[in-house]
Design a protein that fits this description.
CATH topology of the largest domain: Rossmann fold
Low-confidence stretches: none
CATH architecture of the largest domain: 3-Layer(aba) Sandwich
Strand order of the largest sheet: 13-12-14-15-23-22-21-18-19
Structural class: alpha/beta
Number of strands: 23
Largest sheet: 9 strands, mixed
Shape: globular
CATH class of the largest domain: Alpha Beta
Bound molecules: glutamine
């Protein structure tokens, strides 16, 4: 099995943050819409075993897969663009590769041998790539994090070089993403950095098959010719990827116009089939022409300076808005700012308030203030994970009168731990990969907003948390107006709470944002945006 699987490798040069993830996701969408099954994978050259222990300021959001892996946010692009389901195999780091090698060494797996980067680490990398061939995919797309020339990424690129030899050029195709900077002073688009990054790839032993050029301004024929000549890439395989102005979902449409997908299929010697982007283009057109009105959503979090920290939340909001042709304006509010003064200056003209997930005490009081403001002013409210825990704390402190109520995460001595440590977490010592992770079922109460939005009574959603709603406070918080509208099937875990006396007030312990897709917006995000628009105050 997996013998005929084709591998597409995506590397990057010149600078980081070039958009390799969006390019990989776009290519995946195009190949899928030409009738191929795709599997996506990202190799990250850092030493953490996964990004779960990193601050969002370091790394952006931690994306959670169905099977409970804590992964790079690029996997979110993969799932959203190509509508695929990523797995634990979709993200490997240097740390994960090395720990497998070292574990095997300790078990005597290399008995008698000296364990080395080549071949042992590179073999482990190749296994991580080749094992994706069992996913049922026709084409496996592997994105390599980092930039060509980084010390850290060299074992990965060496593994790819070996794979090209072992698989042959029809089964291993290389796509190199590079940057053409525009120099304002001379009014010129420069190709030299791109030439140099292709030259670094050649020195590693990899000649890219396709060169994709990120640029702010249109490329001229001379640029295509020069890059073709100096980078050893045919003229037809030099592709322009110009910045898009309105929606990242335009990227695949633009790449398709230049024939990137048929070029790749030719390299693989696969039939081109018909490309069907009808639904995608209709969605892009809704995104570009949001002519049904404006909706303003305030997101109150603690990493607001870095939008990537809440990537999937912002995307899911936009899916809900695009579906209704609404012009979404997101107001990013630093939770710490909300601790003093009159909050109406922050929320003036806001149609909905969302408190997303998070960890740690900083900004907690501001988030609770945001919940209180939404509750008292009947503004549509959506709480996610820590956002739901803040809802419970607000109800306990500000409605039930338990002024010292808190989560055990923030105050181990609180007399009213309305949020407590989950039983399964009580003996957990290690921090990495030990939370309640991945998809779990939830049963919804008839007549609730959640039940109405989903249209079904049992759903499955992804989780990433250690703390939970304390069942000892179910009655007290019910009297404080919080109805438990979603429970685990055995009724032991509270998954959704609502305020029925409110326009739209839903808070969930899980992370619905990970399952929203541009062509299939998440029901709760769609319903929240709709309620916010319907309830517009101005
Ligand atoms: N810090 C909280 C917990 O561990 C919430 C986690 C989150 O928002 N993802 O339960």
């Amino acid at each position: 099995m997996g013998e005929s699987v084709k591998h597409l490798f995506i590397t990057g040069g010149v600078v980081s943050s070039l958009g390799k993830g969006i390019t990989a996701a776009s290519v995946a969408l195009l190949l899928k819409q030409r009738g191929y099954n795709v599997f996506l994978q990202k190799l990250d050259p850092y030493l953490n075993v996964d990004p779960g222990t990193m601050s969002p300021y370091q790394h952006g959001e931690v994306y959670v897969t169905e099977d409970g892996a804590e992964t790079d946010l690029d996997l979110g692009h993969y799932e959203r663009f190509a509508n695929v389901t990523c797995t634990k195999q979709s993200n490997y780091t240097t740390g994960r590769i090395y720990s497998a090698v070292i574990q095997r060494e300790r078990m005597g797996g290399y008995l008698g041998g000296t364990v080395q980067v080549v071949p042992h680490v590179t073999d482990e990398i190749k296994n991580a790539i080749l094992s994706c061939s069992d996913s049922g995919a026709d084409i496996v797309i592997t994105e390599i994090g980092g930039t060509a020339g980084d010390i850290e990424s060299s074992p990965f690129l060496e593994a790819l070089r070996q794979l090209r030899v072992e698989l042959g050029p029809e089964k291993a195709v290389f796509l190199h993403l590079t940057l053409l900077p525009f120099l304002n002073a001379s009014g010129e688009l420069k190709t030299k950095p791109a030439q140099q990054s292709a030259s670094i790839m050649r020195s590693i032993g990899i000649i890219p098959d396709v060169l994709i050029c990120r640029t702010e301004v249109p490329m001229e024929e001379e640029h295509f010719k020069k890059l073709s000549l100096f980078c050893s890439v045919p003229r037809t395989a030099v592709i322009e990827e110009r910045d898009v102005s309105d929606s990242i979902y335009e990227v695949p449409v633009e790449l398709a116009k230049q024939g990137l997908d048929s070029l790749i299929l030719k390299k693989f010697n696969l039939p081109e089939n018909q490309l069907d982007l009808t639904e995608w283009e209709a969605m892009v057109s809704r995104a570009i022409n949001p002519d049904c009105g404006e909706v303003r959503i305030a997101v109150v979090g603690k990493y607001m300076a870095l939008r990537d920290a809440y990537k999937s939340v912002f995307e899911a909001l936009s899916h809900g808005a695009v579906d209704q042709k609404l012009d979404l304006k997101i107001e990013c509010i630093e939770a710490e700012d909300l601790q003093t003064g009159d909050l109406s200056e922050y929320f003036d003209g806001v149609d909905g308030i969302l408190v997303p997930g998070g960890f740690g005490y900083r900004g907690l009081d501001g988030k609770i203030e945001a919940v209180k403001y939404a509750r008292e002013n009947n503004i549509p409210f959506f709480g996610i994970c820590l956002g739901m825990q803040c809802v419970a704390i607000d109800a306990a402190r500000n409605v039930a009168g338990l002024s010292d109520a808190n989560s055990l995460e923030f105050d181990e001595d609180t007399p009213h731990p309305v949020i407590s440590l989950m039983d399964e977490q009580k003996n957990v010592v290690n921090k990495g990969g030990t939370m309640r992770l991945g998809a779990f079922p939830c049963v919804l109460k008839d007549g609730s907003k959640a039940r109405e939005a989903y249209g079904v009574s049992e759903v499955s959603e992804r989780h990433r948390h250690r703390f939970e709603f304390n069942n000892e406070y179910r009655e007290i918080l019910d009297e404080a107006g919080l109805v438990l509208t979603g429970l685990s099937p055995d009724k032991s875990l509270v998954e959704v709470v609502e305020r029925p006396d409110h326009k739209w007030f839903v808070a969930v312990q899980f992370h619905p944002e990970f399952k929203s897709r541009p062509l299939n917006p998440h029901p709760l995000f769609r319903s929240f945006v709709e309620a916010a628009f319907r309830g517009k105050r101005k």
